[in-house]
Amino acid sequence: MDGNLYFGATNQTAFMDDRLHPDGQEPGILHALLPVLVLVGLLVLNVLFFGDMATSGANQIALIIAAAVAAVMGLMLKVPLSHMIEGVVHSIMSAMNAILILLLIGALAGTWLISGVVPAMIYYGLQILNPTIFLFAACIICAVVSLATGSSWSTVATVGIALLGIGQAMGVNEGWIAGAIISGAYFGDKMSPMSDTTNLAPAMAGTDLFTHIRYMVLTTVPSMVITLLLFLFIGFFHMPEVSPENMNALGNAIHQSFHINIFLFIVPAVVIWMIIKKADPITALLIGSLLGGVVAIIFQPEVVAEVSGITGSYAKQSYMAVVNAMSGSISVSSDNEIAAGLLSARGMAGMLNTIWLIVCAMCFGGVMESVGLLARITRPLVERAKTTGSLIATTATSCVFLNVTASDQYLAIVVPGRMFAKTFRQRGLAPQNLSRTLEDSGTVTSVLVPWNTCGATQAGVLGVATLTYLPFCFFCIISPLMTILYGYLGIRIAKIPSDDPMATA
Fold first, then answer.
1. Do residues 391 and 487 make contact, with C-beta atoms less than 8 angstroms apart?
2. Which of 406, 395, 400 lies closest to 372, judged by CA?
3. Which of 156, 163, 229, 283 has its CA 20 to 30 A from that of 178?
4. What are the boundaries of each domain within the chain?
5. Alpha carbon of 365 to those of 67, 77, 95, 413: distances in Å?
């Protein structure tokens, strides 16, 4: 994901460990499971009753009700209400960087639209990309950019948005497109030494960064190869027919609405360069948004006038157009129906529903963690994992479980990392086994959960519901299965030398 975000989650977990049950009782398994069962039941009802609109309020209410049930369990266990509230506050604080980034992504999408940056990407992409290999190419492009930047979020918010527009113009299913974009972005994020999760996982397991990356190659590359083959299969056998005339008409419509030129690509180049240089992601996105506004004023005066909605002074038009693009929904008119649908953005206001979902999810995760219910559910799993394969499978399952219940990618790495590190050592398993499992399961499955910070964010940025793209995020689905398969088959399971004191630590 984006640099430095995980410190909030790490500090939150440390806070919970230090303060767990100051005056309370140990929860029973029924206490721990009841809030989860209530949440699952309500979410199922929401899907049945609200369909695609479930994330527009129904799921938020479900998370709050489940958090209230968890709080009742805490009161029954004599956990002070102040302790639970403090846990919720720390949980929400751990997501504040993600929320700020989400707002800035909305602003960036708006100014990159009116500046012509995204339209230029779509225009040139239509000329270069062949529909048959589009999904394959989109996955590779996102993988390369994310590997270079270490940020899946920035990759999806920049080239991902443009690729989505290109694919939609070709008539490709939006779930397929989002699945290819996210698969590539999370591959690069997972393998990049500049990614925060790639640094966090070995830190939790007790190994070094590059040993961790080398060991991940063994499961990650096969997962990516299978993913690319699946996208090639879809491209060759299930891609819709695309009329060259329609593609040309769309390109001409974009060219008529914007002044397309190569200088527009300076803006994304600056943002990607800043991220590669490890600039703070909030700073990089803010500068990218402002640069988009400046470029719009210079190159797109007609668009600026249209988006501002006023006549008269160009200075006033410029200010109002940039503010409108950053803050709210805008669109650029076009006689081409497809182009009219593509040339729109939602700004910061369009991200508020996603932020609402994240805040509610962090409330649920904060109460569950502060009462000790998450630890109570996962502790028996450690005791029942008798073989190497079952231990790795249990670790992977715990990561997925925490992505669902704690709604945070970092907790899904930190908590299982702390829980299982000693067990891995005692069984003579090198720490890179644990760090690889944490990344194969915790990092990539976060984007598959609609109310997780990652799932909610990517759905909000791309405008594609999580459950719509989930079946096509092949890499994110295959990765945890691959690491479990390696565990049960005993493939490349590193051992601690018997004379190493770490083996019995």
1. yes
2. 406
3. 283
4. 98-339
5. 8, 18, 11, 14
d(CA 445, CA 361): 16
Q: How many CB atoms lie within 10 A of CB 333?
A: 10
DSSP 429: B
Rounded CA-CA distance 300/321 in Å is 11
Residue pair 346/329 in contact by the 8 Å Cβ criterion? yes
Amino acid found at 470: L
Instruction: Quickly count: other Cβ atoms within 10 Å of residue 246's Cβ.
Output: 14
Q: How many whole angstroms separate alpha carbon 77 and alpha carbon 83?
A: 12
**Cβ atoms within 10 Å, residue 37:** 12
Helices (H), 262-386: 266-276, 281-299, 301-308, 314-327, 337-342, 352-371, 373-384
Distances (CA, A) of 74 to 57, 67, 371: 26, 10, 5
At residue 330, the 3 state secondary structure works out as strand
Q: Which residues contact 186 (CB under 8 A, 6 or more apart)?
A: 146, 152, 443, 444, 447, 473, 475, 476
Q: What is the DSSP code string of 144-191?
A: HHHHHHS-HHHHIIIIIHHHHHHHHHTT--HHHHHHHHHHHHHHHHHH
Q: Are 458 and 486 in contact (CB under 8 A)?
A: no
Per-residue pLDDT of the chain (505 residues; tens, 9 = 90+): 554 444 444 444 444 444 444 455 778 888 899 999 999 899 889 878 987 788 789 989 999 999 999 999 999 999 999 999 999 999 898 888 888 988 998 899 899 999 999 999 889 988 888 889 999 999 999 999 898 778 898 899 888 998 999 998 888 999 999 999 999 999 999 999 878 888 889 988 988 888 999 999 999 999 999 999 999 999 998 887 777 777 888 889 999 999 999 999 999 999 889 878 878 888 988 999 999 999 999 999 999 999 999 998 999 999 999 999 999 999 999 888 878 888 888 899 988 988 998 899 889 989 998 999 988 887 787 778 889 999 999 999 999 998 998 888 888 898 888 888 888 998 999 999 999 999 999 999 999 999 898 999 999 999 999 999 999 999 999 999 999 999 999 998 999 886 565 555 5
- CA–CA separation, 58 vs 42, rounded Å? 9
Q: At what angle do helices 431-438 and 209-237 cross, to 10 degrees?
A: 40
